[in-house]
């Protein structure tokens, strides 16, 4: 399993074990404090969400259909590279119909495609292609060089700015890892930052895509969401408020429920290797070294865990009827971010970013899927993204004008 993932994650937090993992986790945790999250929400997330809003406003004026899958990928790519590397690739500023053309983001797309191909192929097949340096394994080799060179260049510029005193003081993961670990080893820093980018960027964009699909499938949910905006944060609907603040988000429980319910139903899979022999609760024996794949998709639809309506999209399941607040649900039940010591360290950031994006988009626009939303399905891949471009027509809603 380590050999399968090493080309993508190296010794970063996802692939590391033991002391290496502890060190990676400790360093990364410094980036996800409550204070840092507030700063990110008020700067990077706000800036990029408003940029996406402006792109969609122009699409609405022109009456054009746009691929939300592409735009959300650009949004996440811009946010995660700015937080991870301190670099603004500004993909959202390009042509709305174009794919991301920055070599680094193209390399990241190759990573996700080849990772999916490896997971769906016999081990001998991808190893043979790697040996012969053909097909997607050859593309991966080139992508690794692009990522390495990009990281090296960003590190060089960062060190130059520190040397001449022109650094702006803003923390990003790359500088954080260099400072805390006192290293300028390109491979070490690359592994650390790329784990954050690969784990967060694509999963956030595909999760946002599923929220859009579900809000098209269930207009009553969208109506309740906008009712919450009007009641709790009316300025968001009238245009007096552009983006909800960190504090505003804490007062929008139904928004959080909408996001969490999509995350519950549309999730990735988890692979693990048993580091000791054990017996599962149903009596299944798992020997030392055995590979185990946990189907979070199936777990989210277990009636014994979530009730008879487990397969339905119902944000209300997250709301406490007595307090009106979001219920606390054990991470061993809501396992979209995994549970235990290896729980996703960026969970709070991902939830914040998704809530900001949905609040900005649906307080301002109607995003109507061109295809029947109930006909939209997922691609067979590691992260189960929406299949196809997710084309939508964009219309400004009257109250936002």
Characterise this structure:
InterPro entries: Cyt_P450, Cyt_P450_E_grp-I, Cyt_P450_sf. With 401 residues, the chain is mainly alpha-helical. The chain has two domains: 2-267 and 300-400, Cytochrome P450 (Cytochrome p450), CATH 1.10.630.10; 268-299, no CATH class. 56% of the residues lie in helices and 7% in strands. It contains 16 helices and seven strands. The protein has a three-stranded antiparallel β-sheet. Strands 2-5 form a two-stranded antiparallel ribbon. It has a two-stranded antiparallel sheet with strand order 3-4. Helix 3 packs antiparallel against helix 4 and helix 6 crosses helix 7. The protein is globular, with a radius of gyration of 21 Å.
Which features would summarize this protein structure in a list?
mainly alpha, Cytochrome p450, 2 domains, 3-stranded antiparallel β-sheet
Q: In summary, what is this structure?
A:
With 401 residues, the chain is mainly α. The chain has helices at 2-9, 18-29, 34-62, 68-85, 103-119, 123-132, 135-164, 173-180, 186-217, 219-232, 234-238, 246-249, 253-265, 296-299, 303-306, 347-362, and strands spanning 65-67, 269-273, 278-279, 285-286, 291-295, 365-369, 391-396. Strand 3 (278-279) and strand 4 form a beta hairpin.
